[in-house]
Design a protein that fits this description.
- The complex is a heterodimer.
- Chain A is of the alpha/beta class.
- The radius of gyration of chain A is 20 Å and the shape is globular.
- In chain B, the strands form 4 sheets. Chain B has an 8-stranded parallel barrel, surrounded by 5 helices. Chain B has a 4-stranded antiparallel beta sheet with strand order 5-6-14-11, with no helix packed on it. Chain B has a two-stranded antiparallel ribbon with strand order 1-2.
- In chain B, strand 1 and strand 2 form a beta hairpin.
- Chain B has a single domain, classed as Aldolase class I (TIM Barrel, Alpha-Beta Barrel), CATH 3.20.20.70.
- In chain B, helix 2 runs parallel beside helix 3, helix 3 packs parallel to helix 4 and helix 4 packs across helix 5.
- Chain B contains 8 helices and 16 strands.
- Chain B is an alpha/beta fold.
- The chains are: A alpha/beta, B alpha/beta.
- The interface between A and B is medium-sized, with 32 and 33 residues.
């Protein structure tokens, strides 16, 4: 592990040295990361609340942590380092957030089938919900290199784990006070806009799906040509993105998230209903059959 | 490390005709059909005595709703629901792709009726790629109100006896720990013709999300595996070994093995071979580490054959 940077809203960006992974990662692929931590010594507690509080502060004192956690590759750098970005949500991410530079992490990757970039579109519309923003950076970078124009629409609760600044440009599909952009993406010549659920200065109050809807509705039918959507985020958000893509007849690839066991395709835990050539929906493994699927193949209604 | 005059210890074992280069097997359900780990750095089929294929039923099975996996202290729960493409598809499409020259292959058979077990077992037993057939008797019997075959000596015996009639390969009965007296089930399986006993399957378990007050697993309950179950498994192997050794039936021990020392505990308790499963999920290089640790232990203790360590437990 090389570096950990705390970002707003309990997000972290973690960088580690893994030249083989850096060299071979393609956008949408993920790495399985595990930091088992140090096993703490037993101690006495005054109350149950005290116990909970202690373990919150010292997750490493809990019994050994077994399974790795999957993270989309955020950046794959020429210096052989790889970056992931995550929000501290549970024990696995808490342990990772407390890891210090210099420790050894267990990392397996790159895993899965990334985005299909065989025929990059003229304009790529990238839609991110929450930490779905993380894997889209590598995608944006590669699409930019391939000459695609980028439109990047990000939605979060409030926090944005990248560099937010104000832009002077006005976009035609939004009110003129929606000016906040993300510098990292502006660096890729992207048109960027942010939506937040809780009102935030310069951001659209709403979701990334609202942004996408307004963007698409403002397009003339002939402007749809040469555009494609790439999406990553929570299930409900991506289901709505898939609906919009179908309505506007745009190709759309979605990067799915699911709770995983092995990350190698062996345990069959991370399945999702995917339409087969026969038209029938079957469970496929998100880790190795995905994690990127064509939006129209995902059984959005099939999930219980 | 080797003592003076100490030769390389013998790791090869032969369990009722299942001859393996070492006593380490990959447990069913943690390895799919043997193709997923081949490209993972640190993993090699050649390090392993045998692999066990995923539990297979007669018809394809879709499996359970997600989430199918949850983590707990030193363990994990799964409720995959036997997702598999059905015995015919496995025998026709998957078995010919297996690199059978690299290691031994054990099929794992599941079913909802005695006839289903028998049919699936026959298909695998007749396949040239298969070296042994393991019968997972932890499945619910639809003809008996869903009670698990493996929790009742009579039902367990019926399944094994029926499979025995059609199975030409060494027959392994895989026992469930979710019983009051595992030795009664073990005896019934030996009586019905099992050549080998393997144990333990996972322990029934539940994890609750306190925020939603719902079970984490889509199927509500699942099977607990990982280091958390190891002491339970060790005790049951010890119990079953007392019966099995009288009948010369070897035992395959499993449950939470993640180090060489864990494997040694099982061998000392009475296991002639052992399976690794969940540990592979966080450490694909675990097999190599276990075999190397096992070898060192034998050399340090001047034991020239791993078989001589089996069941050498000294009770207090």
């Amino acid at each position: 592990m090389l570096e950990i940077v705390e970002l707003e809203g309990e997000h972290c960006r973690l960088r580690f040295h893994a030249p083989a992974i850096a060299e071979s990662s393609s956008p949408g692929q993920f790495v399985n990361v595990r930091y088992p931590g140090e096993i703490g010594k037993p101690r006495a507690f005054d109350s149950h609340a005290d116990t909970i509080e202690y373990y919150k502060k010292h997750p490493a004192a809990e019994p050994p942590f077994l399974l790795a956690r999957p993270f989309g590759v955020h950046r794959a750098n020429a210096d052989g380092s790889v970056e992931i970005m995550f929000k501290v949500l549970g024990r696995g991410t808490r342990l990772l957030a407390e890891a210090q530079p210099g420790v050894e992490l267990d990392v397996l990757g790159p895993i899965g089938n990334g985005f299909d970039l065989a025929h990059p579109p003229q304009t790529a519309v990238l839609v991110a919900g929450g930490t779905g923003i993380a894997p889209l950076y590598l995608l944006a970078e590669r699409l930019h290199e391939a000459g695609a124009e980028l439109v990047i629409l990000v939605g979060t609760g409030y926090a944005v784990p990248m560099t937010v600044s104000d832009s002077e440009d006005v976009v035609h599909f939004l009110d003129e006070e929606v000016t906040a952009v993300i510098d990292e993406y502006v660096g890729l010549d992207a048109l960027v806009r942010i939506a937040t659920i809780r009102p935030r200065k310069g951001c659209y109050t709403g979701t990334s799906v609202d942004l996408l809807s307004q963007y698409l509705n403002a397009l003339k039918p002939e402007q749809r040509c040469g555009k494609a959507i790439f999406s990553c985020g929570p299930w409900a958000m991506q289901a709505a993105v898939a609906d919009l893509a179908a309505k506007f007849e745009l190709p759309c690839q979605v990067l799915l998230e699911e709770r995983m066991g092995c990350g190698l395709g062996a345990c069959m835990a991370c399945v999702c209903k995917i339409r087969q050539e026969s038209g029938e929906y079957k469970y496929k493994r998100v880790c190795v059959d995905g994690p990127v699927f064509r939006a129209e193949d995902v059984g959005w209604q099939e999930r219980e | 490390m080797a003592g003076k005059g100490m030769t390389e210890p013998k790791l090869a074992v032969d369990l009722a005709g299942l001859a393996m280069r070492n006593p380490m097997i990959i447990g069913s359900g943690t390895f799919a059909y043997g193709e997923e780990f081949i490209n993972v750095a640190g993993f090699k089929n050649e390090d392993i005595g045998a692999i066990t294929l995923k539990g297979t039923t007669l018809e394809p099975r879709e499996g359970n709703a997600t989430p199918r996996v949850a983590e707990s202290a030193s363990g994990m729960l799964n409720s995959i629901g036997l997702q598999n493409p059905g015995a015919d598809a496995v025998v026709r499409d998957i078995l010919p792709r297996l690199r059978v020259f690299q290691t031994r292959v054990i099929a794992n058979v599941a079913g909802r009726t005695v006839e289903e077990y028998r049919k699936v077992a026959k298909k695998f037993s007749d396949a040239p790629e298969i070296d042994a057939v393991e019968v997972n008797i932890s499945c619910p019997n639809v003809r008996r109100g869903g009670a698990e075959f493996g929790t009742d000596p009579t039902m367990a015996g019926e399944v094994i006896a029926s499979v025995r009639e059609v199975c030409k390969r060494p027959l392994i009965a895989k026992l469930t720990p979710n019983v009051t007296d595992i030795t009664a089930i073990a005896e019934a399986c030996i009586e019905a013709g099992a050549d080998i006993l393997s144990l333990i399957n996972t322990l029934r378990a539940m994890v609750i999300d306190t925020a939603t007050r719902r079970p984490v697993l889509g199927a509500n309950t699942g099977g607990l595996s990982g280091p958390a179950v190891k002491p339970v498994a060790i005790m049951m192997v010890h119990q079953v070994y007392q019966i099995a050794k009288e009948k010369n039936v070897p035992v395959i021990g499993m449950g939470g093995i993640s180090t060489a020392n864990d494997a040694l505990e099982f061998i000392i308790a009475g296991a002639s071979a052992f399976s690794v499963g969940t540990a592979l999920f966080w450490n694909p290089a675990v097999c190599k580490q276990i075999i190397s640790g096992l070898r060192s232990y034998l050399i340090e203790n001047q034991i020239d054959d791993v078989s001589k360590l089996v069941g050498t437990l000294k009770l207090n």
